[in-house]
Design a protein that fits this description.
single chain; 484 residues; alpha/beta; Rossmann fold; six-stranded parallel sheet; three-stranded parallel sheet; 24 helices; disordered N terminus
Length: 484
């Protein structure tokens, strides 16, 4: 049992009383109890474990049941924490009635719950809290310090558990490599995911978190706004900003070609996490220089990068896809708390909004905020407003505007061919209509798939444009479409 190991770390000889009594005392006397939910622990709680197994957990469970019974079912001090939704399916019926936490999504709420107990004279001091692990109960870890950080705040964050599970191991100090790159189309939530991953990776592993963004323009429901005062504009400026954060301003005065080595020397012996955002705005030369610099990072330092596709990259790469339906509905519900018109929208309309925006976080939130604003009283109105590409506040231009400059002549004809059909069409038909030979068409469609412009179906034998890409192409390049 992990709980036993917590005691053995402090008392190698174990408790003075027998283990069964010690366990019972912990279950009965601990002011706050966190149950790390797993199928096997819940079997112990329900008395359904195989004979001779899980005896310690069964002892804990019996005393917890008695504790709740003595309080006439009032339970302020015992909570279940789950790490994935699969574990939630096995929660015992008695415990299912009470609020539970999700370890990643509700981490801040767990800390507040524990701190409330401490402020009321009930909880354990932070220094007494230990790590928690499956099949045991113990207080949630309260970091003894917070890393120095300039991470910006995030407005909302839902789901992305699969992506976090892939990113966090790459940010562990024992991991090989310099870290990870999150790439994907504009508006998918790369920056938000990077910030959340940095928050979760930092406690106990990093003393400093340095956040830098090369983003020159950002988009909100009212339109684009200038971010250049807060942005770094190149590789050298990025090095200088890191040096200043590390309180090494002398590095910024050194010759430019010496600064990478000097900064690596300054990072040696530190535990620093670099979060570098929107790298696609850097020149190709600066991107190459950055990845060369990252390849020399000390083992105790890691980097987490974000970029739209086509960045010159080495190392681990996570391609960020659209929000799933559940997370998108949660996002809309959160916006609806401050938007009565959206709150009145029925679920079928919300699902249509998710489908039409392709699960793109920026398009989803921008369109949702238009409901109840101007002439938009419904989601249908807001979607029509989005398709009109409003001058000066066009999220389609913000997200997809750089695509047109990157299309090859063959890609232009293929995209134009796909811009009007509402159903996926076969590759052979795309090649015939566009006038591009089939082998070239297939290669181009694979590249366009990787750039999240087209959607393959039926084993890459049929393709369709992402819905809002089609809207943008028809509006921004009608001449290109007319050729087909």
């Amino acid at each position: 049992m992990i709980l036993d190991q917590f005691l053995l770390d402090a008392k190698a000889g174990g408790p003075p009383e027998d283990w069964a009594k010690w366990r019972a005392d912990q279950a009965n006397q601990t002011e706050r109890v966190i149950i790390i939910g797993s199928e096997s622990w819940f079997l112990c709680y329900d008395g359904k474990q195989p004979p001779g197994t899980g005896l310690g957990a069964a002892c804990e469970a019996r005393n917890l049941r008695r504790r709740i019974y003595r309080n006439a079912g009032i339970n302020e001090d015992i909570r279940v924490v789950i790490f994935d939704e699969a574990s939630a399916q096995h929660i015992s019926a008695d415990l299912e009635l009470y609020h539970r936490f999700h370890a990643d999504r509700d981490f801040d709420n767990i800390l507040r719950w524990l701190n409330d107990a401490e402020q009321n004279g009930k909880g354990m001091k932070a220094k007494e809290c230990q790590n928690m692990a499956p099949h045991s109960f113990a207080p949630i870890p309260l970091p003894s310090f917070s890393p120095r950080s300039n991470l910006p705040t995030i407005q909302r964050f839902f789901d992305r558990e699969t992506e976090l599970a892939k990113l966090l191991p790459d940010l562990h100090p024992d991991a090989t490599g310099w870290g990870a790159l999150i790439d994907g189309p504009g508006g998918m939530g790369k920056t938000t995911l990077a910030i959340r991953a940095a928050e979760l990776a930092a406690p106990g592993h990093f003393d400093d978190i340095v956040f830098l963004s090369a983003k020159q323009t950002a988009m909100d429901p009212h339109g684009p706004h200038d971010e250049s005062p807060f942005a770094v504009s190149g590789f050298t400026q990025m090095l200088d900003a890191i040096a200043r954060r590390l309180q090494k301003p002398e590095i910024t005065q050194a010759p430019a070609d010496e600064r990478p080595r000097l900064l690596i020397d300054a990072l040696t012996g530190t535990r620093t996490l670099l979060v570098l955002d929107n790298l696609e705005t850097l020149t190709d030369a600066d991107q190459r220089s950055l990845f060369a610099f990252l390849s020399h990072l000390p083992r105790t330092c890691k980097a987490l990068l974000t970029s739209r596709p086509l960045v010159i990259a080495t190392g681990r790469r996570l391609k960020l896809q659209q929000l799933d339906q559940a997370a998108a509905l949660q996002t809309l519900a959160d916006i609806a708390r401050d938007n009565p018109a959206l709150a009145a929208a029925p679920e079928p309309d919300r699902l249509r909004l998710i489908t039409q925006t392709g699960g793109n976080t920026l398009l989803l939130t921008w369109t949702a905020w238009q409901v109840g604003s101007g002439y938009c009283t419904t989601i249908a109105d807001a979607l029509a407003h989005l398709r009109s590409c409003p001058q000066g506040n066009d999220p389609l231009q913000f997200i997809f505007g750089d695509l047109l400059a990157r299309f090859t002549p063959e890609e232009e004809r293929i995209v134009a061919t796909l811009s009007y059909p509402t159903e996926p069409i076969p590759v052979t038909a795309i090649a015939e209509i566009s006038g591009v030979d089939e082998p070239t068409t297939r290669r181009a469609l694979k590249l366009l798939t990787n750039r999240s412009i087209v959607l393959p179906q039926e084993g890459e034998e049929k393709y369709a444009l992402v819905p809002m890409v089609a809207e943008f192409i028809r509006h921004a390049r009608p001449d290109m479409v007319k050729q087909m």
